[in-house]
Amino acid sequence: MSRPRILPWQDRRGAFSLLRAAVFVGVFLPGLWLVWRAFAGTLGPRVWIEINHQSGLWAVRLLLLTLAVTPLRHVWQWPELVFVRRPLGVAVFAYVVIHLVAYAGDMAWDVGKVASEIVARVYLAIGFIALIMLIPLAITSTDGMMRRMGGLEWRRLHVLIYPIAALATVHFFLQSKLGVTEPIAIAALAVWLGLWRLLAAWLGAPRVGSLAATALLGAVVVIGTAFAEAGYYFWKVHAPLARVLPTNWALNAGIRPAWIVAAVLVAVLAVAVIRRLMPAREPKRRRQTASAEKPPVSSQRQGNAA
């Protein structure tokens, strides 16, 4: 007997899931925003380049969210988050494909020129390798493929997400020409997630997912981000560290990468505290069992009357 098909906004039991529905709608919003801008004529003189940049940016952001699911499950004590990992991963692949198609559109659909540019430019080659590595993950993203492969083999294949994230981060950083604030912040968040995984493998996820450990690791990454930005400008334009580091305390210096990472840390800790303060809910299966065992009121009255 075939299993009933689960829709993207339903949980495993087929009931409506607000979490899944929010993620399902959310991954479409950046693409729909690009479509609206295209019809409104606000994409600028080089439409394909703007679509290329925006789709690549959202692909990297969603990739980080995909990697963050497991750490956030433990930090937020929210096991249901595991069910949004695959939708996020599929969305990453979709935006990467749009990213490549838009680049080909800017090249007037000259496949030969696109291929030669990918070979000639290191950052394009790195991004293309990441796309190739994403293909088997996208193909095996369904429940059916997981059952055919078996859980162990499926997990081994999907470990590729970590080198893909490293390649995507490097590609995003190298292709950034106007500013490095977000690329440095993205790289810092990727390092944070990588460090969390390494520490979880060493010390155990529950211990690393505690509020104290999260705050400590996040603070280390925030400080490291500030020094990484200063080091970048020292390497690029020989700006002294003593001049760049104080900009993290100057409100008129613009948004700094360390601010972005610090804001993410505050948000993660705030949600973690709120969830810990929420009253524990009894599992639905247990509630259903208890209600099934309890006789209806009418039966109780009949029994008393007898």
Automatic annotation (TrEMBL):
Binds 1 heme b (iron(II)-protoporphyrin IX) group per subunit. Residues 56-168 form the Ferric oxidoreductase domain. Keywords: Cell membrane, Electron transport, Flavoprotein, FMN, Heme, Iron, Membrane, Metal-binding, Transmembrane, Transmembrane helix, Transport. One of its GO terms (cellular component) is plasma membrane. It is found in: Cell membrane; Membrane. Residues 297-306 have a biased composition (Polar residues). It is a multi-pass membrane protein. One of its GO terms (molecular function) is heme binding. One of its GO terms (biological process) is protein repair. The chain crosses the membrane at residues 21-39, 59-76, 88-106, 118-139, 159-178, 184-204, 211-235, 255-278. InterPro entries: Fe3_Rdtase_TM_dom, MsrQ-like. It holds the Pfam family Ferric_reduct. PANTHER family: PROTEIN-METHIONINE-SULFOXIDE REDUCTASE HEME-BINDING SUBUNIT MSRQ. Belongs to the MsrQ family. Part of the MsrPQ system that repairs oxidized periplasmic proteins containing methionine sulfoxide residues (Met-O), using respiratory chain electrons. Thus protects these proteins from oxidative-stress damage caused by reactive species of oxygen and chlorine generated by the host defense mechanisms. MsrPQ is essential for the maintenance of envelope integrity under bleach stress, rescuing a wide series of structurally unrelated periplasmic proteins from methionine oxidation. Heterodimer of a catalytic subunit (MsrP) and a heme-binding subunit (MsrQ). This is Protein-methionine-sulfoxide reductase heme-binding subunit MsrQ. The gene is msrQ.
